[in-house]
């Protein structure tokens, strides 16, 4: 009741005090789950706000992306330059001038933070922001972390800017804790010794892979070669957020134990942005970062791996890190830019405002147009997202609902390989179902015998697209050996396999795969192992069942390296 009264009070004040030229731009119905109203901040409290401008032809970019990503197209693989992409994403001169003039009239100078000039940043105060956006910023405490954030439940913009200004952040988007895998579980030495000094050329799956997952298991299950990449021009990027730091000493120990066929000194490059860093030492070990690095370096043999550590203002929320990372990569020299990016973080879609989600999704579309394969873990809550006990309708995750990236679910076991019950999947409430997946998804909806049809948006973008092993991955973390499970293990594995495919494509004089989905749902579908056992329960339901063909648990299936080579024409 308190949340509802606060929201009604806020809207009433907006309606009563708003000058006629203002229009409400974004609203949310109530304070999101996990947050409580904690009073009014001082009017002098400083705020850093990002303003996204309306891009002049984003639909044109999306259409071009699908065209150059579709294998049957005459322009397949003709990836775009940064300047070509900016031609679609830059704001019109009129929109740019309108927003900047409005800010200048209020004594504010905007700094451009993107190549195309479609994102601006302003430094202001709560009092001035309240006036600018005809709102009342409030303080909210997050019950799990104890952190306090300044947000609002609605904000307005001058009516004259309605076709120029896309989104203001952070305003109505609350920072749901970005999810990673659960904590590391200790592992016994007995389980490790059965894998030591194994002949890596043998395709038989080691018996120990029934209990734990290490690189030799991935190689055996999916036919991934242990030989070095040869092109020298393919790179693999690993995103790092929320203070997760990858340790070189842990990687060396991991390679010594589980990839003894390659030098234990094999390491990764480091890039930082937004004040990111990567301090070393056991006290700084991050199991998510170590997992991602150990299973990219350890699976994508010989492919240079870059750990991209994103810092940022904690009051801004990690979603801004997604945006800054996309803009950073788009602005990077194409020769230095990774052609594959794996990210093991995500959130519930409902925690992101539709406008912010759309802006982030368009940023991923820009990366795809530049020839980058962008992969995200689908999440570890089954159909419940981060709400295992408090959902009536299924909870889609973000950015998996974005149609311009590749969502990776999780499997486990072999003979048969089955769905991991925690593998998040479902249907977006924000994004429409893209044409490249409509046949596969409609077949599922028509034949799966679903009992929970009213709990999800059957016309939304469906995810995940693919899957890979995600249970009991052995890692070294702070010098200790343990296991981790989650789709955050699956995404680095699938990304590593794509990087190895890219290496062979480049060596053959062909373009890299870039945005994967149109390929995966056409020529690539037959190159994936169909997973037909399991489900992803949640919200007090069995969730979605895995079936023949695509399903919202494991997507199209898991990779078969040899068949993928054939599918790409090698």
From TrEMBL:
The keyword Transport does not apply. Its EC number is 3.4.14.10. Binds 1 Ca(2+) ion per subunit. GO terms for molecular function: metal ion binding; serine-type endopeptidase activity; tripeptidyl-peptidase activity. Its cofactor is Ca(2+). Its main location: secreted. The active site is at 288 (charge relay system), 292 (charge relay system), 488 (charge relay system). Pfam families: Peptidase_S8, Pro-kuma_activ. Residues 1-17 form the signal peptide. It comes from the Eukaryota. Gene3D superfamilies: Peptidase S8/S53 domain. The keyword Signal applies. Keywords: Calcium, Glycoprotein, Hydrolase, Metal-binding, Protease, Secreted, Serine protease, Signal, Virulence, Zymogen. It is found in: Secreted, Extracellular space. Residues 212-570 form the Peptidase S53 domain. GO terms for cellular component: extracellular region. Secreted tripeptidyl-peptidase which degrades proteins at acidic pHs and is involved in virulence. This is tripeptidyl-peptidase II. It comes from Sistotremastrum suecicum HHB10207 ss-3.
């Amino acid at each position: 009741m308190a949340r509802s009264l606060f929201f009604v009070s806020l809207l009433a004040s907006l309606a009563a005090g708003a000058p006629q030229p203002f229009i409400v731009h974004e609203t949310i119905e109530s304070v999101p789950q996990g947050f409580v109203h904690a009073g009014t901040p001082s009017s002098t409290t400083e705020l850093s706000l990002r303003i996204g401008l309306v891009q002049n032809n984003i639909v044109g970019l999306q259409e071009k992306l699908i065209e150059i990503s579709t294998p049957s197209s005459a322009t397949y693989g003709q990836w775009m330059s940064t300047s070509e992409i900016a031609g679609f994403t830059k704001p019109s001169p009129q929109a740019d001038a309108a927003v900047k003039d409005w800010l200048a009239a209020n004594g504010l100078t905007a700094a451009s933070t993107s190549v195309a000039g479609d994102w601006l940043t302003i430094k202001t105060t709560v009092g001035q922001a309240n006036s600018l956006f005809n709102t009342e910023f409030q303080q909210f405490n997050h019950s799990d972390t104890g952190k306090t954030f300044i947000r609002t439940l609605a904000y307005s913009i001058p009516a004259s800017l309605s076709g120029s200004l896309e989104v203001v952040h952070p305003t109505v988007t609350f920072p749901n804790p970005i999810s990673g895998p659960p904590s590391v579980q200790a592992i016994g030495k007995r389980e490790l010794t059965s894998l030591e000094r194994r002949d890596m050329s043998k395709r038989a799956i080691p018996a120990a892979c029934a209990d734990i997952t290490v690189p030799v298991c991935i190689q055996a299950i999916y036919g991934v070669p242990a030989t070095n990449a040869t092109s020298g021009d393919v790179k693999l990027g690993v995103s790092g957020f929320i203070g997760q730091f990858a340790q070189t000493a842990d990687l060396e120990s991991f390679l010594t134990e589980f990839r003894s066929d390659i030098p234990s000194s094999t390491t990764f490059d480091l890039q930082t942005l937004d004040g990111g860093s990567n301090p070393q030492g056991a006290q700084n070990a991050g199991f998510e970062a170590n997992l991602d690095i150990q299973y990219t370096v350890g699976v994508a043999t010989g492919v240079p791996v870059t750990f991209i550590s994103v810092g940022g203002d904690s009051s801004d929320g990690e979603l801004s890190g997604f945006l800054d990372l996309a803009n950073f990569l788009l602005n990077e020299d194409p020769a230095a830019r990774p052609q594959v990016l794996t990210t093991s973080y995500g959130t519930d879609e409902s925690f992101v405002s539709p406008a912010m989600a759309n802006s982030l999704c368009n940023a991923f579309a820009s990366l795809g147009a530049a020839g980058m394969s962008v992969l995200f873990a689908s999440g570890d809550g089954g159909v419940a997202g981060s709400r295992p006990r408090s959902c009536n309708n299924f909870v889609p995750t973000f950015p998996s609902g974005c149609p311009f990236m590749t969502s990776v679910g999780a499997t486990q076991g072999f003979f048969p390989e089955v769905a991991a019950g925690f593998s998040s999947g479902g249907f977006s409430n924000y994004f429409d179902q893209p044409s490249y997946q409509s046949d596969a998804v409609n077949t599922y909806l028509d034949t799966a015998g679903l009992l929970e049809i009213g709990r999800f948006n059957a016309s939304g973008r469906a995810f995940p697209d693919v899957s890979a092993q995600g249970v009991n991955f052995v890692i070294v973390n702070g010098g200790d050996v343990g296991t981790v499970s989650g789709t955050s293990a699956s995404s680095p594995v699938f990304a590593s396999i794509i990087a190895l495919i890219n290496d062979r494509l480049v060596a053959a004089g062909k373009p890299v795969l870039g945005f994967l989905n149109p390929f995966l749902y056409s020529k690539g579908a037959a190159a994936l192992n169909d997973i037909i056992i399991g489900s992803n329960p949640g919200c007090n339901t069995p969730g979605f069942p895995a079936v023949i063909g695509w399903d919202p648990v494991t997507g199209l299936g898991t990779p078969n390296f040899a068949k993928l080579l054939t599918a790409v024409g090698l």
